[in-house]
Structures are given as C-alpha cells and as structure tokens.
Amino acid sequence: MAPRPAWRAGIVVAALAGTAMSPATAYAAAAVDYEAESAVISQGVVESNHAGYSGTGFVNFDNVAGSYVEYSVNAAQAGTHTLTFRYANGTADNRPVKLVVDGGDKGTVDFPATGDWTTWKTVTATVQLTAGVNKVRTTATTANGGPNADKLTDTFTAPSDSEPPSPPSNLAASNILPTAATFSWTAATDNVGIVRYEINRGGNVLKTVDGTTTSATVDNLTPNTAYDISVGAYDAAGNPSQQSNVVAFTTPPSNDTTPPSVPGSLRSTGVTANSVSLAWNASTDNGGTITAYDVFQGATKVASTTSLTSTVTNLNPNTSYTFTVKARDPNGNSSAASNAVTVKTSAPGGAGGIPEYDKDIAKVDLGWAVDFLPNGNALVTERDRFEILLVTPSGQKTTLGRVPGAVTTTGEGGVLGLAISPNWASDHAIYVYHTASGDNRIVKMTYDGTTLSSTSTPVLTGIAKNRYHNGGRIRFGPDGKLYATVGDAKNSDNAQNKSSLNGKILRLNSDGSAPGDNPFYATGGNARYVWSYGHRNPQGLAWDSRGQLWAAEFGESSLDELNLIQKGGNFGWPSCEGTQGSCSGFIAPKKTWPTSQAGPSGVEIVNDWIYIAGVTGKQLFATQINAAGTGVGTVSTLFSGRWGRLRSVTKTPDGGLWLTSTNNDMNGGTPTVLDNVIVRLKFPAAH
C-alpha cells in the first residue's frame, strides 16, 4: 500500500489483550484468537477499508522498519504452541517481521504476497510459551513495514507423533505390460496409523494410494524401459517410513513399429573455436514418448540426449562440420534424419567457456565427490564402498581407508560429500557427509598426506535419512564456513520447518557450532544452522566471483532448478517446484529444466561460467553468469550420453575440470565393479 502521512507514524494504541474471554474459557478452548486491532500497535493504524477481515478491523503497519503489533497471549498450558497469523499483502514483495516472545528473539516470519489486499492467508510459527500471559511482538524488518495484520490464533500443540511407520515389505510386481504394472506389498505398521502409501521410481512419486490399500496398478509407464520401484508409508503426522524392498524390471516393448516424426529446424545456436551448439524442434511419436535424440557428426553419432539442444566439443578451429539429428522412441524406432546443417568453427581465441574432453583419469565405482589437496592430488569419495581414494593427476589411485560407521540406504545414501579444510596444511582435517545407522551426519577425519585416520569426530548429527533425498554436498565457502546441502528425506514438510535440518542449505563453523550471523541463529536449536530453506533435494554448491552462492536442486516430477541462494531465503518446496505450483512470495530459480532432462547434481564455477553435472539427463550443462550477477545466459548441453549419469564436476589446480560418472547408482550401486570414470576436461586456452 502507499505510505501514509507521517503524522500517523507515531500512533500507539493500547487495548485489552486478546478477545474478551474468561480464563475458564481460554483453558477449555483448543485455539484462541487474538484480534490485531485489540493489540498494542506502534507505527500502525486500525483500518477496515479492505473486506474479509475478522473482528472489527485490521492493523495497517506504517511503511517503516520497526513498526510492530504486540499481542498478549494468555497460554493455558506451558509448552509448544503454534501461532497462526492471518494477514493480507497486496504487494509483490515479502514483508517479513521479527518474532519476539517475552523479549526473546524467535527469528523471522515471512509474509509473502497474497495477490491483493482482500485476499487473506495464514502463516505459522512454532514457539515455546509459559503458562499465563506471553508478550508476542511482530516487528517489521524492512522499509515496507509489515503486512495487514488481521489476527493471531494460539494453539497448544500436544506432544507430536514422531514415530515413523515401519517400511512396507514384500513388494512384488505382476502383470507387467508395456505401459502398466501392478504392485502389491505387505502393509506397514505404525503406532497411530498409516494414511497413505507412495509408489516411487527412484526419488519420484508415480502414484499415491490411501493407507488401507496394499495393491495398485501404475498405468503411466513407458515401453522397453528399466524401472526400479519401491513403496514408502506415511502416517497422519507426515512421518515417512524407510522404503520397502526394491523391485527392478524392464517393461516389454509394445507392438509399435511407427518411427517418430523427423526433428525439425536443426540449427546452430553458438560457435567457438572448439565447439558447435545445436538446437532443433521436438519430434512427436504415436506412443507419446521420445526416448532420445541422436546427434550425428557426419555418419558418426556424437551425442544422445533427451533435450532439444546439444553442444558438440573437441572440434578443430576454422573447420566446417555437418550435423543431423534423429529421434528415437522406446521401441528403438528411429526417425529419418533432420535437415543437415553445416557450421564452421571460429578461429582460436574466440568465445570461451566451453570445455572439451582431455583424458581419462581413473576408473572408480561411484565417485560422488572430489576435492583437491594443495599439491594437486585429489581425494574422492566412493559412495557405496564407503572409501576415500587418493587420485593423482596422472591417474594413480590409492585407497586410503573407509569412513567408519558409514552405511548404505540401498539408494542415494552412503559416503557422499567431501571437503578439505582450508587450513589443511596445519590441521590436516577433512570433512565427510555420510549416512550412518540412524541419521545422516557430517564428520571430521584427518589425512596427513600419508595416512587417513581410522576414526572420525562428529561435527553435525541428527540429519534425517531415507533411501532418497539425502542431499550430501559439502564445501567451504569464501567466508571459511562449511556449507551443506540436505534433502528433505522424503518428508516434504521438513523443508519449511526451520527446526528440521532437512530440506535446507546449512552453514556451520568447522568445529560444528553455528555461526552467530546465521539468519535464524536467535531462534535456537536446529534453526541456528539454517542458511536457506524450502529445498527438496539440493546437491550442488559453488560460489561466483562476487562471492554469491549458487546451488542446484532435483525437482519432484516437473522442474529441476539452478538457484542463486539468499541468506535466510525460502525457495518454496513443497508449495512450489521450480516455477510451478503456489510460488508467490518465494525466491524463484534462475534456471529450470524438465526433470527428465537434467537431474542437476554437482556444480562448479570457473570465471563466472557455471558447470552442472546432470544425472538424469546424462550430460554436462554450461552457462555464463550475466554481467549483473543476477542470472545466467544460454545453457549449452555437453557430452550428452557419453559417460552416462554425471555426478560431480570440480575445478582442478592446473586449470581444468574433473568430471565423475555414477551409473548403476540407484539401488545401492555395484561396489564390486569399477565401471565408472573420472575424466579430465580442458578449456581451449589450456591445451
């Protein structure tokens, strides 16, 4: 709303605390309303010019930082209380307030836009109240002031159900058809009751059924496609079970012999001395699915991708190349070739930023994370072998030892992130994010250049784990603090709950304490570690030349994300996925991809070019941060299908990139087989 005249800025209204209720009524009521117009108001005014409010009006904060509404909440019982604020915000901006209870800072409560001033919504905060009267003050933190405040509702929260269901068991698949399969399982058990089951492919939900159903048919499968299916149970409190056993199968081909239509309008979208970027229009297929687009350089297939773009690298300068593209459906039917396009690469010294393949470094099992020592050697985590490797630039590989206490989740858990201390020369400390018997955790080990310690010291524990959505990337930032990406552990409510470590990017000191300048430090508990929240399953972290943090995040079923992280920022999950859903008031991603094309995991930044390792899309993405540092330009897709599922990308001390693959990683891996790669990429100027 427009700022009001300055004469209103000093108005203070004092009135009775809460609505007119006797103590007996308050004790009997499940929830108690406190109208904002009956609270203590500083730098605000009671108005009634927007319809839809309760009581006799609402409080219009003055457009200044420091304006506040203070409620006197008469709690019948001491303990955990949920405060529900009803408000309207007709601007496009979030209007956060600082929440203070009896003088204690309880952090910031966000009030996102509601669309207009007559649309009333609610936000909640969970606090500890004492029996009797508690002073609850909401103070505007920005020059925009607070929202239009209607009322506060106090609800005493009885001890919550924190016991998850047991995993469903004996999952079996039957009647497997080209586009459908039936699944049955033995029911999970719970101390209260099961309300739903989710049938998952990897970490993505295929179908949801109620808690009394133990058999269901999924009818949106693709012919001739490999699936790994599990089932998870949920109780009424939202607690997720661990996943059932996994059923792996391949749907049979259909009788479809009709090829897709020809990809249209193949064209060049960018040229450097060593690369050509291509784009084309989508094909259609009578079965509704395009499995891949195969890119040909002459008669040689050089890329296979689900995207509508591809960048071909390792080309010679000043040389003409001819390209075509064919579409392929799940039954292996290929379209005719697209139009041919001939492109000449530029002279050396042209636009840079696109790396090319240099050489193989080593074969590993599942190299999940890489970090470099000062001498140029690298430490690499083996996710399912629970090992840390030493790998030299020449490819010499040594197993240093195992991470004690590490376990698998037969899915996305195990030994994940790795970060070498910025003071390694003096403290010899390395940090590892791994799954343990009861949680995910960050631990400290030592490596003195010769010997890896056989024990570890816990740094941060109690991160909920699940078969899926464990996050796991850790890196030291330019500020010397350790950052960690944490998934929601298949409980999407975790992402918005600041008391949970899950669904967050965390920031901590190297000793495991929480930095005092973290945005929710004053709230206490786990919230002290939260740097940003509203994340589903983030896995990539990197900083640009301005010191800004960028992160990549796996979407559910629609959109994957590249985010520019803000301190204390809310990125919307589960209300918002990418740019889909209820996204008003949340921080929007800087780039999205369909989940079938990306699966962004590791992220690296070199000279303000961002490189993203794609797991699902089986390709590397490259894009340049714009001059203002606020977004990115055109995205190039590199090495499409060449090494399969790409997990990490890390800049090397000698000016290149190391890229790792993690194929066969969806069901606990194959730790007896070293069939994944670490490869080195080089830049045109670094031949």
Automatic annotation (TrEMBL):
<dbReference type="InterPro" id="IPR003961">
    <property type="entry name" value="FN3_dom"/>
</dbReference>
<dbReference type="InterPro" id="IPR011042">
    <property type="entry name" value="6-blade_b-propeller_TolB-like"/>
</dbReference>
<keyword id="KW-0326">Glycosidase</keyword>
<dbReference type="InterPro" id="IPR013783">
    <property type="entry name" value="Ig-like_fold"/>
</dbReference>
<dbReference type="InterPro" id="IPR005084">
    <property type="entry name" value="CBM6"/>
</dbReference>
<feature type="signal peptide">
    <location>
        <begin position="1"/>
        <end position="28"/>
    </location>
</feature>
<feature type="region of interest" description="Disordered">
    <location>
        <begin position="139"/>
        <end position="171"/>
    </location>
</feature>
<keyword id="KW-0732">Signal</keyword>
<dbReference type="InterPro" id="IPR012938">
    <property type="entry name" value="Glc/Sorbosone_DH"/>
</dbReference>
<feature type="domain" description="Fibronectin type-III">
    <location>
        <begin position="262"/>
        <end position="348"/>
    </location>
</feature>
<feature type="domain" description="Fibronectin type-III">
    <location>
        <begin position="167"/>
        <end position="254"/>
    </location>
</feature>
<keyword id="KW-0119">Carbohydrate metabolism</keyword>
<dbReference type="Pfam" id="PF03422">
    <property type="entry name" value="CBM_6"/>
</dbReference>
<dbReference type="InterPro" id="IPR006584">
    <property type="entry name" value="Cellulose-bd_IV"/>
</dbReference>
<keyword id="KW-0624">Polysaccharide degradation</keyword>
<dbReference type="Pfam" id="PF00041">
    <property type="entry name" value="fn3"/>
</dbReference>
<dbReference type="Pfam" id="PF07995">
    <property type="entry name" value="GSDH"/>
</dbReference>
<dbReference type="InterPro" id="IPR008979">
    <property type="entry name" value="Galactose-bd-like_sf"/>
</dbReference>
<dbReference type="InterPro" id="IPR011041">
    <property type="entry name" value="Quinoprot_gluc/sorb_DH_b-prop"/>
</dbReference>
<protein>
    <submittedName>
        <fullName>PQQ-dependent sugar dehydrogenase</fullName>
    </submittedName>
</protein>
<dbReference type="InterPro" id="IPR036116">
    <property type="entry name" value="FN3_sf"/>
</dbReference>
<feature type="domain" description="CBM6">
    <location>
        <begin position="32"/>
        <end position="155"/>
    </location>
</feature>
<keyword id="KW-0378">Hydrolase</keyword>
